[in-house]
C-alpha cells in the first residue's frame, strides 16, 4: 500500500485538531452579547466533533492517501466553519443577525456532509479494534455460566417448592388439630360469665336468706309489740295472712335465687370441664401413634362438648346420642390392621 508520510502526518494533525476542539468556545456570549452569540451552534458542533472522535488515530497508518485526503478535507471544512464563528464581528457586518444565522446553518449542515464521508472509515476502525473472536468466546462463556446458574436456581427452587409443600401439609395438619383446641376459648368465656353470675346470685341468696330469717324471727315476737297485738279475731286473721304473704314472698325469692345460683354454678363447672377437655386434645393426639386412636380421642372430645354431665349442683341425664364410643366398640377398628396380617 502506497502512503505518503506528509499526507499521513497532515491527516493525523487535522484529525487531532477537530477531536480536541472545545465546542463551548463557539458561543462567544461575552463578546457578542445575547442577540448575536452562537449558542445555538454549540450543540450541532459538538455532534460533529463526537463523530470525528469515533475515528481512531491508529487506523490512519492503514489508510491509503485517498482516504487520508478525505479525512483532511472534512476536517479542514469543519475547522473553516468554526473559524468563521471565531472571526465573526458585529461591527464588520451590515446585517449581523442574517450573517450569524447563515453561519449557524453551516454548522448544522456539517453533520450531513461529514457523516457519509467518514462513516465507512469509522466502521473499518471499529472492526479493526474489536476482537470479534474474543467477544464470541466471552459471550459463549457468559452463556455457559448463565446456563449453569439457571440450573442451580431451578434445583434450588425445586427444593424450596418441595419444602413449602411439606410445610403446607404440616400446617394444614396442625390447623386441623388445633381447630379443636381453639374451640376451648368459647367455653372459657362461657365459664367465666357463669362464674361471675353465680357469685352475684350467691350474694343475692344470702341476702334473701337473711331477710327471711329476720322476717320469721319478727313474726314470732310480733305479739309482744302492742302496736301489732290483735284485739279481735278479725285482726288476728288479718295479721296471720300478712305474715304468710311476707314469709311466702321472702321464701319464694330465696328459693328462686338459690336455683339461679345453682344453675350458673353448674354452667361454670360444665364449661370449665369442656375447656379442659379440649385443651388436652393435642397432647392426647400426639400420644396416639395410630389414626384409629385419633378417631377415639376426637369422639371423646366431641362427647365432652355435647354431653351434659352432673356437676353436683344440678342433675341432668345424658342423651343416648351424646354417648362416646365405648372401648369394646372401638376395638375392631384398632385391631383391624393386626388381624388383616
Shape label: elongated
Uncertain runs = 319-341
Structural class: mainly alpha
N-to-C SSE string, H for helix and E for strand: HHHHHHHHHHH
Per DSSP E runs of 2 or more residues, the count of β-strands stands at 0
- Distance between termini? 98 Å
The number of helices is 11
Portion in strands = under 5%
Please explain how this structure is put together.
Helix 4 (65-87) packs antiparallel against helix 5. This protein starts with a helix and ends with a helix. The protein is an all-alpha fold. It has three domains: 5-130, no CATH class; 134-179; 180-340. The protein is elongated, with a radius of gyration of 55 Å. It contains eleven helices and no strands. It has helices at 5-19, 29-36, 39-53, 65-87, 96-129, 132-182, 184-220, 233-279, 281-287, 291-306, 327-340. The relative contact order is 0.06.
Structure keywords:
mainly alpha; 3 domains; disordered C terminus; 341 residues
What is the secondary structure topology, with strand pairs?
Blueprint: H1 5-19, H2 29-36, H3 39-53, H4 65-87, H5 96-129, H6 132-182, H7 184-220, H8 233-279, H9 281-287, H10 291-306, H11 327-340
Quick recap:
This protein has 341 residues and is mostly helical. The protein is built from eleven helices and no strands. It has helices spanning 5-19, 29-36, 39-53, 65-87, 96-129, 132-182, 184-220, 233-279, 281-287, 291-306, 327-340.
Amino acid at each position: 500500500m502506497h502512503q505518503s508520510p506528509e499526507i499521513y502526518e497532515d491527516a493525523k494533525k487535522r484529525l487531532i485538531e477537530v477531536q480536541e476542539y472545545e465546542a463551548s468556545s463557539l458561543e462567544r456570549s461575552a463578546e457578542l452579547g445575547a442577540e448575536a452569540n452562537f449558542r445555538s451552534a454549540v450543540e450541532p458542533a459538538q455532534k460533529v466533533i463526537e463523530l470525528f472522535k469515533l475515528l481512531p488515530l491508529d487506523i490512519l497508518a492503514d489508510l491509503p492517501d485517498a482516504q487520508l485526503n478525505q479525512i483532511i478535507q472534512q476536517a479542514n471544512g469543519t475547522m473553516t466553519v468554526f473559524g468563521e464563528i471565531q472571526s465573526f464581528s458585529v461591527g464588520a457586518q451590515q446585517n449581523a443577525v442574517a450573517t450569524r444565522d447563515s453561519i449557524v446553518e453551516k454548522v448544522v449542515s456539517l453533520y450531513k456532509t461529514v457523516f457519509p464521508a467518514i462513516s465507512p472509515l469509522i466502521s473499518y476502525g471499529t472492526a479493526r479494534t474489536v476482537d470479534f473472536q474474543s467477544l464470541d468466546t466471552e459471550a459463549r462463556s457468559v452463556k455457559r455460566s448463565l446456563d449453569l446458574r439457571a440450573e442451580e436456581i431451578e434445583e434450588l427452587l425445586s427444593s424450596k417448592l418441595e419444602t413449602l409443600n411439606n410445610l403446607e401439609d404440616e400446617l394444614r395438619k396442625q390447623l386441623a388439630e388445633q381447630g379443636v383446641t381453639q374451640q376451648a376459648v368459647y367455653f372459657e368465656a362461657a365459664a367465666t360469665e357463669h362464674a361471675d353470675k353465680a357469685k352475684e346470685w350467691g350474694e343475692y341468696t344470702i341476702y334473701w336468706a337473711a331477710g327471711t330469717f329476720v322476717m320469721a324471727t319478727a313474726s314470732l315476737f310480733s305479739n309482744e309489740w302492742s302496736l301489732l297485738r290483735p284485739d279481735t279475731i278479725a285482726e288476728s286473721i288479718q295479721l296471720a295472712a300478712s305474715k304468710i304473704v311476707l314469709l311466702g314472698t321472702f321464701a319464694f325469692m330465696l328459693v328462686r335465687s338459690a336455683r339461679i345460683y345453682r344453675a350458673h354454678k353448674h354452667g361454670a363447672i360444665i364449661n370449665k370441664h369442656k375447656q379442659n377437655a379440649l385443651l388436652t386434645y393435642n397432647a392426647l393426639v400426639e400420644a396416639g401413634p395410630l389414626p384409629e386412636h385419633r378417631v377415639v380421642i376426637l369422639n371423646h372430645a366431641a362427647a365432652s362438648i355435647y354431653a351434659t354431665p352432673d356437676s353436683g349442683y344440678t342433675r341432668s341425664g345424658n342423651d343416648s346420642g351424646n354417648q362416646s364410643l365405648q372401648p369394646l366398640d372401638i376395638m375392631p377398628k384398632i385391631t383391624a390392621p393386626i388381624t388383616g396380617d
